[in-house]
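Researcher: Go.
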Amino acid sequence: MNRSIRWDALSAPKKILVMVATSVQVSLAVSAWADLAERPPELVNGSKKKWAAVIAINFLGPILYYRRGRRAAPAAE
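Model: Structure:
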Protein backbone atom coordinates (compact mmCIF):
# COMPACT_ATOMS: atom_id res chain seq x y z
CA MET A 1 0.00 0.00 0.00
CA ASN A 2 1.63 3.22 -1.20
CA ARG A 3 0.48 6.19 0.89
CA SER A 4 2.68 8.85 -0.71
CA ILE A 5 0.95 12.01 -1.86
CA ARG A 6 2.19 14.19 -4.68
CA TRP A 7 3.20 17.74 -3.83
CA ASP A 8 0.63 19.17 -6.30
CA ALA A 9 -2.14 17.26 -4.49
CA LEU A 10 -1.47 19.02 -1.17
CA SER A 11 -3.52 22.04 -0.18
CA ALA A 12 -1.73 25.36 0.31
CA PRO A 13 -1.84 25.16 4.15
CA LYS A 14 -0.35 21.64 4.06
CA LYS A 15 2.41 22.79 1.72
CA ILE A 16 3.22 25.63 4.11
CA LEU A 17 3.26 23.22 7.05
CA VAL A 18 5.66 20.88 5.24
CA MET A 19 7.95 23.80 4.32
CA VAL A 20 7.97 25.17 7.88
CA ALA A 21 8.64 21.73 9.38
CA THR A 22 11.46 21.16 6.89
CA SER A 23 12.95 24.57 7.65
CA VAL A 24 12.85 23.95 11.41
CA GLN A 25 14.39 20.48 11.01
CA VAL A 26 17.23 21.73 8.81
CA SER A 27 17.90 24.68 11.14
CA LEU A 28 18.02 22.41 14.20
CA ALA A 29 20.36 19.95 12.51
CA VAL A 30 22.72 22.59 11.11
CA SER A 31 22.98 24.43 14.42
CA ALA A 32 23.58 21.16 16.31
CA TRP A 33 26.27 20.04 13.84
CA ALA A 34 27.94 23.46 14.02
CA ASP A 35 27.93 23.32 17.82
CA LEU A 36 29.31 19.79 17.77
CA ALA A 37 32.09 20.77 15.35
CA GLU A 38 33.20 23.69 17.52
CA ARG A 39 32.82 21.95 20.90
CA PRO A 40 35.96 20.29 22.31
CA PRO A 41 35.64 16.50 22.69
CA GLU A 42 35.89 16.71 26.47
CA LEU A 43 32.68 18.77 26.50
CA VAL A 44 30.70 16.12 24.61
CA ASN A 45 29.07 13.14 26.32
CA GLY A 46 30.33 10.25 24.22
CA SER A 47 31.77 10.10 20.74
CA LYS A 48 31.47 13.11 18.44
CA LYS A 49 30.97 10.69 15.52
CA LYS A 50 28.05 9.07 17.33
CA TRP A 51 26.42 12.43 18.01
CA ALA A 52 26.96 13.54 14.40
CA ALA A 53 24.95 10.49 13.29
CA VAL A 54 22.27 10.98 15.96
CA ILE A 55 21.75 14.60 14.90
CA ALA A 56 20.70 13.33 11.45
CA ILE A 57 17.60 11.69 12.98
CA ASN A 58 14.81 14.17 12.17
CA PHE A 59 13.70 16.44 15.02
CA LEU A 60 14.65 14.00 17.75
CA GLY A 61 18.38 13.87 17.01
CA PRO A 62 19.24 17.56 17.48
CA ILE A 63 16.99 17.79 20.53
CA LEU A 64 18.72 14.76 22.10
CA TYR A 65 22.12 16.29 21.34
CA TYR A 66 21.23 19.59 23.02
CA ARG A 67 19.66 17.80 26.03
CA ARG A 68 22.07 14.88 26.53
CA GLY A 69 25.13 15.28 24.32
CA ARG A 70 26.71 18.45 25.66
CA ARG A 71 28.60 18.97 28.89
CA ALA A 72 28.76 22.36 30.52
CA ALA A 73 32.06 24.19 30.23
CA PRO A 74 33.92 24.53 33.53
CA ALA A 75 33.18 27.80 35.29
CA ALA A 76 35.85 30.44 34.86
CA GLU A 77 37.30 31.71 38.13
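Model: The helical segments are 12-38, 48-55, 60-69.
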